[in-house]
Amino acid sequence: MRESDLVGAELTLLGRLPDASNTALLTDLRAADGRRRYGLYKPIRGERPLWDFPDGFLAHREVAAYLISEAGGWRVVPPTALRDGPLGVGSVQLWVTATPGEDGTPQADPRNLRPVPSEVDVIVTTSRHLPAGYLPVLTGQQSAGSRVVIAHADTPELASVAVFDAVLNNSDRKASHLLRDAGNRLWGVDHGVSLHVQDKLRTVLWGWRGQPLPAADVQRLQILRAALGSQTEPGSDQSGLVAALAELLTRAEVAALQRRVEHLLSTGVFPEPPHEWPAVPWPPL
What is the DSSP letter of 48? Predict the structure, then answer.
């Protein structure tokens, strides 16, 4: 089901996600051709005001993140669209599930949906070394003396998510926002607190800090830079992406996005954790 299908699909509410900080509703989506999928509907009227994100709406940022992911070629955000629903306008995103053989197609009982494996682990060890394939993020110590390490997988696809988060200025990349579907494809969800003008990057993916960006992501950044173009004056022609983002974000936020892309391309490395604000969201998992 594509973004365009989400807008026209018949939407039926199935239940609320109890752990969500804002209203998030599991839905049944039936496309015009009869295809059915689960979706996640986040109505604007269910958003709680945030003092550090006073402009715009979280639903708009969810959709903007999807457009940026598609334009740059990351394709890490599930199809997401802005549309009307039973509780008014909001974002609707295809549901990611790891249920074997289903790939998001509704089952008889939606409670059969099960959590997917996390890309981030808490590792308890007495060794100074992590298992192969992991990069450390945070280190602590138990009362018994064992080390406790929050670490993430060292994989190219996860590194690409880290680059994408730097582009978005994602302030809430928790482990639970990284999901794999039945085909083992990695997805990133929950981008409502992204795309701020001020630097607010908070993530559990700091393992590559200071390292050169992967060549594939440099190419994605170049593609996104071309799609964004340069900041335009009011009333002048805008690219398709900039025009779409202008419906969702402020001009200052679009300009800040362009600056972040330019900065990443000019430095060519993963950003370092900030000192002025918390670098890791809480809880991290």
Answer: P
* 141 token code pair: 């110590």
Distance of alpha carbon 49 from alpha carbon 67, whole angstroms: 24
Distance CA 37, CA 184 (A): 18
Q: What is the mean pLDDT of the chain?
A: 86
Cα–Cα dist 186/120, whole Å: 13
- pTM (2 decimals)? 0.89
Q: For residue range 246-284, what is the model confidence (pLDDT) as tens digits?
A: 999 999 999 999 999 999 999 999 999 988 888 998 888
pLDDT tens profile 115-132: 444 678 777 776 777 888
How far apart (Å, rounded) are the C-alpha atoms in residues 71 and 213? 19
Q: What does the alpha-carbon distance between residue 71 and residue 73 come to, in Å, rounded to a whole number?
A: 6
pLDDT one-digit tens code per residue, 40-90: 999 999 998 888 888 889 999 999 999 999 999 999 999 999 999 999 999
Q: Name the H helices within 73-214.
A: 156-168
* Alpha helices per DSSP H over 11-144: 58-72
Contact 258, 202 (CB under 8 A): no
Q: Helices 58-72 and 156-168, interaxial angle, to 10°?
A: 130
Q: What residues are paired with 43 via a beta bridge? A: 90
Q: Return phi, psi of residue 90, to 5°.
A: -170, 180
Residue 182, token pair as written in the block: 């039945």
Residue 133 φ/ψ region, left for φ over 0, alpha for ψ in the -120 to 50 degree band, beta for the rest: left
The predicted pLDDT at position 121 comes to 78
At 63, is the secondary structure helix, strand, or coil? Answer: helix
Task: Give the Cα separation of 115 and 197 in Å (integer).
Answer: 33
